Amino acid sequence: DARVTQTPRHKVTEMGQEVTMRCQPILGHNTVFWYRQTMMQGLELLAYFRNRAPLDDSGMPKDRFSAEMPDATLATLKIQPSEPRDSAVYFCASAAGGYGYTFGSGTRLTVV
Amino acid sequence: GENVEQHPSTLSVQEGDSAVIKCTYSDSASNYFPWYKQELGKGPQLIIDIRSNVGEKKDQRIAVTLNKTAKHFSLHITETQPEDSAVYFCAASYSGNTPLVFGKGTRLSVIA
User: Fold this and answer.
1) A-contacting residues of B 7-46, CB under 8 Å?
2) With bands split at pLDDT 50, 70 and 90, how would you rate the model's confidence at A28?
3) Among A18, A47, A110, B68, which residue carries the largest CB count within 10 Å?
4) Beta strands in chain B (DSSP E)
5) Residue B52: is its pLDDT beyond 90?
6) Backbone phi, psi, residue B26, to 5°
7) Closest by CA position to B88, among listed B19, B2, B18
8) Mean pLDDT score across all residues of chain A
9) Is the pLDDT of residue A108 over 90?
10) Closest-CA residue in chain A for B99?
11) Is the pLDDT score of A5 beyond 90?
12) Which pLDDT value is given to residue B45?
């Protein structure tokens, strides 16, 4: 089965450090999403792209988060500087259009 | 924007019994309603979806019903098995053109 690949699976970092998470969407999927999952807030949309163009990043703290798609096979989410409240599981998902999202296994981020 | 409420937050059933999870949404324009299953340490996986031109859809032991007038939809799992134990999320969007908004999830435990 085709899958969305996320790296790293786990990341522990110190407050103030830069964190980069990567996502390889399914080949042929033109829409890529970044969601953050916490116990309190559930699954929250951070940003999404269609045909590599950013459509909405209103869910991200702009001063510290950035999302890019340098090419069709790679999406990145960066946090700089990281803070303890950023600790969460970050999911990438891809879709052909807007239906049938396929999620990756997530990056579990711990900021100490 | 869209808001999706999901109930209950936890549900325990005996193996072989049925389980029902309910969601309500706020935006009457929403017309796509998927359900995702998340197992421990994994990303959410699509299990069934429904679009607003139908009121019910069934796939083996899983069914989803939609009431557009009342703006609610439900997941029904019959003959539950221990492997059905997971967290289930409902979601809603408009024609797949807006990102999915997720409910907070229901932790289902099937007791053998």
Assistant:
1) 32, 34, 36, 41-46
2) very high
3) A47
4) 4-7, 10-14, 19-25, 32-38, 45-51, 56-59, 62-67, 72-77, 86-92, 101-102, 106-111
5) no
6) -105, -30
7) B19
8) 95
9) yes
10) A98
11) yes
12) 97
Degrees, nearest 5: CA angle A7-B42-A74: 30
Q: Do A101 and B100 touch (CB under 8 A)?
A: yes
Alpha-carbon torsion, ordered A51, A55, A60, A63, to 10 deg:
100
What's the token pair of residue B25? 């949404």
Other Cβ atoms within 10 Å of B28 Cβ, number: 11
Q: Nearest-CA neighbor of B99 among A36, A20, A62, A61? A: A36
Q: Which residues of A touch B (CB under 8 A)?
A: 4, 33, 35, 42-43, 45, 48, 56, 91, 93, 95, 97-106
At residue B54, the pLDDT reads 79
Q: What is residue B40's DSSP assignment?
A: T
pLDDT band at A22 (very low <50, low <70, confident <90, very high): very high
Res A8: pLDDT: 98
CB neighbour burial string for B47-75, b if at least 16 within 10 angstroms, e if fewer: bbbbebeeeeeeeeebbbbbeeeebbbbb
